[in-house]
């Protein structure tokens, strides 16, 4: 086999997690190959789209702690590439004042001394006149939060990876992975060997893991990404101090509803339901369920009178959910040089830089920078017995 086909590490899947993993490996002078089954850029997975929310507002401390470094890593990439990837807008978190999830987020922000402010029904309209706060609800603002420019971020990190000498090949579907001291990866275009492999294949993770005798309890759902037209153009944009927002639960649903200002598509506000219907990633467009859109229409009629309660644009992406909605960041139980990053459950994009660092560390056999016990495969032992 030619030397060109041998690498220190092969990363499978060029979404945000795989791209940052490859970038971190290349920064450590590791000869790295990044494989992607579709032609780049594409809209078939989970990392496409103009924007994502970035925040420290979480119910768990460990996510908030990870985001502290993550903000610094995003800023570092901005500086390296000379590109703006983030804009601060604040994140408005709303929920019933006695609800569990809302109180957990509020307490996490306070405990970790994250810059924040609390809004009540008495002062809410002074700060956010475009939105109505439901009776019995309270709101906090994560002041440091904002908008990540997702498509730009993905192309930027891939560009930096290639500038560091990394090799990126798209339109190469992996057909087989043979474990060993040196791992052999076969694609529809060639065969490659590496000391370690990182699998960041999103909704296709289990398809790849099958050939190594592993199936994780992952559920793939299709998300309708909805944009709603402003009745007055520009009334819900950043200049009018309209923030990103999350509603933790409410009359419409137990799942989060989230939104971003109208700057992404002028005149259109992105508001989505944080759940979808089960789908096959290779047959995504055959899933036509719109029950989430009905929920959003009800929410907009109640709380956002400045928007037309009929989606003007509906795009699509996929979430790959774990049962507890926490990530998988671990080595294969039987092969320590095969690393898995999966199950990002619709909230992983913002963590891309730190996840890339952690998966890089695992692939090099290093001690991870953070305690990864919450992300280990063994927590699924009971569920995995039923799928193997």
Automatic annotation (TrEMBL):
InterPro entries: FAD-dep_OxRdtase (IPR006076), FAD/NAD-bd_sf (IPR036188), MTOX (IPR045170). SUPFAM superfamilies: FAD-linked reductases, C-terminal domain, FAD/NAD(P)-binding domain. Residues 8-362 form the FAD dependent oxidoreductase domain. GO terms for biological process: L-lysine catabolic process to acetyl-CoA via L-pipecolate. One of its GO terms (cellular component) is peroxisome. Keywords: FAD, Flavoprotein, Oxidoreductase. It catalyses: L-pipecolate + O2 = L-1-piperideine-6-carboxylate + H2O2 + H(+); sarcosine + O2 + H2O = formaldehyde + glycine + H2O2. Pfam families: DAO. GO terms for molecular function: flavin adenine dinucleotide binding; L-pipecolate oxidase activity; sarcosine oxidase activity. Its cofactor is FAD. Its EC number is 1.5.3.1, 1.5.3.7. Metabolizes sarcosine, L-pipecolic acid and L-proline. Belongs to the MSOX/MTOX family. PANTHER family: PEROXISOMAL SARCOSINE OXIDASE. This is Peroxisomal sarcosine oxidase. It comes from Channa striata (Snakehead murrel).
